[in-house]
Predict the 3D structure of the following.
Amino acid sequence: MMRPYLLTACRPNNVQFAARSSIQQTARRTYAFQASGTPSFQVFNRRTKWLQKERSGANATQSREADYLKDEMAKRVSERLLDIKRNFPRTLDLGANSCNIARALIGPNPDNDPDNPSSTPLPPLASKIVELVAADSSSTLLYRDADTLPDGEVGEGMKLTRQVLGDEETLPFEPQSFDLVLSSLSMHWINDLPGYLAQINNVLKPDCPFIGAMLGGDTLFELRTSLQLAEQERKGGISPHVSPLADVRDVGGLLQRVGFKMLTVDVEDLIVDYPDTFALMQDLQAMGESNAILGREMGAISRDVLLANEAIYRALHGNEDGTIPATFRIIHMIGWRESPDQPKPLPRGTGEINMKDFFEKK
């Protein structure tokens, strides 16, 4: 995503090779080989992303003002627990950011009737969870609101435990140690998404769900197109400023590939209006959602390109009231760890009713 501030490039140390004159140099042939296991493709610089989240957590006031998207998505992820009629003794919130899901769980129950305030309010969703482990790689962002949301019991008997991860792509938890895994708006920065989903499946107990939401598809397509046109006009070429994102069809296939069962995948678009592109980019930075692609152009975007981007964005996508829309495409997913007692479809050919005959009789 957009990164309007400067980061310093790190160059590898120069390595020099010296040979003693008394040693005779002989030709040596080397061979390339593929390491064992599934190859991992690096798209994002994880250290850059960690620094961005650390800066976001350090600027607490601006970060809280830009939390509207993550707070809204945390509520929508939590609402999916209403369809599962069971409690979860131990729950993991992966990529917890500033504990947005914890705040959503202890908030009012979404099933409360706003048109009948005199009715008995339902307990918060936190009553379905005994312990919530909020895990993130950025300690500053994770503990940003520790003064108002401390570790320990936070409401309705739910205990909050924060855990800082050394590497967000390598989970340090024991197999089959959680009854539920939640993730909201963090997986779009994972390099090895298939491996990450496989680890999530591994830490779940049998017949327990994973509920997640990630940015995908055409997220920020308005910003992507306007920046490309602005750079092409002013610089004669383009560089990546908006991250590559997974498509909904990719996510469904990956969940099935790593062993999840009874899959549910759906998409929704959230459109947020901003006064101008500078406000949009400022909020993306405050969210910790700036660009972290490997091989990106280092340094701030030039003033000429930013001004051209503003004009092109308004011409192509602007609203009649003078604001500009920004589309966030959310991919929701639910998958269950396989268990012998789960419902399973019957094998092909075991059906006793011909559907063609059934509908012809109708």
Observations:
- The beta strands are 88-94, 129-136, 152-155, 158-164, 180-184, 209-215, 261-274, 324-336.
- The first strand starts at residue 88 and ends at 94.
